[in-house]
Write a structure and sequence with these properties.
Number of domains: 1
Number of strands: 7
CATH superfamily: NAD(P)-binding Rossmann-like Domain
Structural class: alpha/beta
InterPro entries: NAD(P)-bd_dom_sf (IPR036291), SDR_fam (IPR002347)
Protein name: SDR family NAD(P)-dependent oxidoreductase
CATH architecture: 3-Layer(aba) Sandwich
Number of helices: 6
Organism: Spirosoma aureum
Helix content: 40-55%
CATH topology: Rossmann fold
Strand content: 15-25%
Shape: globular
Oligomer: single chain
Radius of gyration: 16 Å
Length: about 210
């Protein structure tokens, strides 16, 4: 049975590039998103390239649906070897615009669901192979007042990566995050999806550094 990369929060940028990069190393790929039609298109492209892949739907506002999706991945493709959490609530919002309810809703997507996802898959990860990879952002260090919620979320991602690493390292599960400090686009000089995906592969393969700022 192939190793399985489960990607939560899928789009045409970083997450899809990570899927292709890990597939080159023999991983089957599970793409998990709230837009099932979109990821089914990505899965068809992966399958056309000879990659074992599956599309799975979840509602980012419903934590239970993420747990269900990850369990479906296990049934269809096998236990998750590497979890790549890429989901984020992306929108502007200042102190005057945000509310307690909006911050809590975003925190669920940006941070809390990571914990749920990790707890769902870690029990069957193989020591020395298991991995948790989190997409971070430079907002964690920028104090961007017009992106209050996302800044809090990305700062929490760095802290959570360190906490998860301390907890899971004894079990042989690697935890790492790439803090992406630039605008991601295919034509960028540095911050292309493919370049970031390569950094994720290096991070996972080396298994010695929790955070890389890229």
């Amino acid at each position: 049975m192939a190793k399985v990369l489960s990607v939560v929060g899928v789009g045409p940028g970083i997450s899809l590039a990570v899927a292709h990069r890990f597939a080159r190393e023999g991983f089957a790929v599970a793409l998990i998103s709230r837009d099932l039609a979109k990821v089914e298109g990505y899965v068809n492209d992966l399958k056309a390239a000879g990659i074992e892949a599956g599309a799975f739907e979840y509602d980012s506002a419903d934590s239970a649906s993420l747990e269900t999706a990850l369990k479906q991945v296990e049934k269809q493709l096998g236990p998750t070897t590497v979890l790549h959490y890429n989901a984020a609530s992306l929108h502007k919002g200042s102190l005057e615009q945000e509310t307690a309810d909006s911050l809590v809703a975003d925190f669920r997507v940006n941070t809390a669901n990571i914990v749920l996802a990790v707890n769902t898959v870690r029990g069957k990860m193989v020591p020395g192979e298991g991995g948790i990879l989190l997409t971070g952002g430079g907002l964690a260090y920028m104090n961007a007042t017009d992106y209050l919620s996302l800044t809090l979320g990305k700062a929490a991602t760095v802290t959570l990566a360190n906490l998860l690493n301390k907890t899971l390292k004894p079990a042989g599960i690697f935890v790492g995050t790439i803090t992406v400090s630039g605008t991601v686009r295919p034509t960028a000089e540095k911050h292309t999806p493919d370049n970031i995906a390569e950094e994720f592969w290096k991070l996972y393969s080396d298994r010695s550094t929790v955070e890389v700022r890229f």
